[in-house]
Amino acid sequence: MGKIFKRRIMALFLFLFLFSIAFSYTIDVYAFFQTKENKIVSEQGIMWGLGVDAQWHDFTFNAEILETNYVIGDIKLKWPQKVKLFEDTYYPFGESVLTYSIPEFELSVGLQSLNEGLGSEYPLFISSNNTPYPSLKTIFRPFDWLSFQQDLLFLRTGYINPLNNENTQVVKSVYYRKTTFHPFDFLNVGFQEAVLFMGRDLDLYYLFSPFPYINSQDIRNTKNAPWYSPENDNCMVGGFVEFNFPGNSPFKRGFAEVLVDDWSWSNDEAGVRKVAWNTGLDVSLGRDFLAFEFAGASRYTFQRTGQYPYQYVRYDEYPELPLEYNMIGYKYGENNAALSVKYTRTFETATLGLHGEYLVFGHRDPFSPLPPDWKEHDHFRWLDDPVLQKETTVGIHGSWNVTDNITSSGVLGTTFVQNEDLVKDQNSTYPRLEFTAEYRFSITEDVVEKMKNGEFFETDFF
User: Fold this and answer.
1) In angstroms, rounded to a whole number, what is the distance separating the alpha carbons of residues 318 and 316?
2) How far apart are CA 39 and CA 311, in angstroms?
3) Residue 410, SS3?
4) Per-residue pLDDT tens digits for 27-80
């Protein structure tokens, strides 16, 4: 059995090596182990996986196979087949992405977890809160001072039961666009927009029209027009400004970003009440790095407006999921404010740091339609609940390059919750523990030579 296993391993590596030689590929294969417990993964769980990174000229490819027993909130997932390595585990989708990149153009397609926002902690429009999804991302840079980006997210595939033609699963997609102006070395200014729609994977008007998404929708909603179409999608618009300070300044980057949900030029009541924002500042002092972010959202932002289930969540039929896992964009949803401070010290082969977050929020319910009297209140409602839930998270984080092939990272912290579930004086404490170890092996000419000479197992794997 051992000889057969060795032969199979050698055959696999021989294929990768010959492939890398024939096509001038750079190939890394890696394995990792992770354990985690936090407010989303409510029970201590593990995840392990295998992956490959490959590069050929202007193309790169990454793919992963994962197995885990993570509990998502209170939901324990059950794998439908008996074939698995461990009990009580399941196989989620890992990333599988092919990218082509040159200075003027970039294309990535596959199963991706995209982040679209200036902040690392609180991206507004699209955030990698959950598992990868089929998507396509393009960036076009016709000039040094101008770039265009478009992301197509296919969050849910439609399914019609072939036995009775019943539509059992409705298609759900999100399109995102960004235009960035770079007039000076230190300044970026941009416009962003997103549209959530259902019932179709592709919408060619949104895809091809130079008009903003909301204008494309309004044009198709023109009454008595022969091109009238009954779309009623959820459109968001926003903008940002980003400053990159000179190299001799301790301030490295500052930014501000805003999102207006459910915007419509044809209805002055829509959108003006539903706003999210994020601001941040990065400071570098030699080996010390500080990152500040302050984000929030007004009441009703990302919430379902009427009968259409256009709340800005990925899984609209699962309100029991943790909101931080389910959101397509800003992870804390509506009616909140969040402040993050992160300090990191860099050493020769390691990093070590402290982090803290303060989060306060009121009532959040993106799944219910807006209340009938919502327009009778002030245009901007924010944290006006009689009781607010407050969360303070503190912890330490670090990473260590054990060898050239082995790396590890971890987070240890605690979240203190006041007025949990908006019940006054109901307090709780949640631990946060994350640890990841990864082994990465690169295919090199030296390894190939040892294979040719029958000395593969004499390779220094560590």
Assistant:
1) 6
2) 22
3) strand
4) 889 999 999 988 888 888 899 999 999 888 899 999 999 989 888 887 877 777
pLDDT at 146: 96
Closest to 45 in 3D by CA, of 75, 83, 80? 75
Cβ neighbors of 330 (< 8 A, separation 6 or more) are: 117, 122, 123, 124, 127, 259, 276, 278, 295, 297, 302
CA dihedral (304, 309, 314, 315) in degrees, to 10, reads 120
122, 110 contact by CB (below 8 A)? no
Where is pLDDT greater, at 220 or 112? 112
- Residue 447: strand, helix, or coil: helix
Q: Kindly report the CA angle at 210 between 206 and 211, in degrees rounded to 5?
A: 75
Range of lowest pLDDT (44-48, 151-155, 228-232, 443-447): 443-447
Q: Angle between the 445-452 and 2-22 helix axes, to the nearest 10 degrees?
A: 130
Residues composing the chain? 462
131, two tokens: 């598992």
Mean pLDDT within 346-375: 91
Q: How high is the pLDDT of residue 346? A: 95
3-state DSSP call for residue 457?
helix
Strand, helix or coil at 14? Answer: helix
Closest CA to 138 of 149, 127, 147: 149
């903008």: which residue's tokens?
A: 239
The tokens of 256 are what? 């501000």
Cβ pair 243, 252 in contact under 8 A? no
- Contacts of 319 by beta carbon, 8 Å cutoff, 6+ apart: 367
Amino acid of residue 217: Q
Determine the average pLDDT of the residues in 195-201.
Answer: 89
Contact (CB, 8 A) for 172 and 195: no
Give residue 1's pLDDT band: very low, low, confident or very high (50, 70, 90): very low
**How does the average pLDDT of the chain come out, rounded?**
87
CB-side exposure of 230: number of CA atoms within 13 Å?
2
| Rounded-to-integer distance, Cα 427 and Cα 431, Å | 14
Q: State the number of CA atoms in the 13 A half-sphere of 46 facing the CB.
A: 10
Look up tokens 């993570």; give the residue: 70
Does the pLDDT of residue 119 top 50, yes or no? yes
Q: Give the Cα separation of 299 and 274 in Å (integer).
A: 7
* Residue 144: CB atoms within 10 Å: 9
Supply the pLDDT for residue 264.
Answer: 62
Judged on CB neighbours under 10 Å (0-12, 13-18, 19+), 167 is exposed
Q: What whole-number distance in Å separates Cα of residue 258 and Cα of residue 237?
A: 8
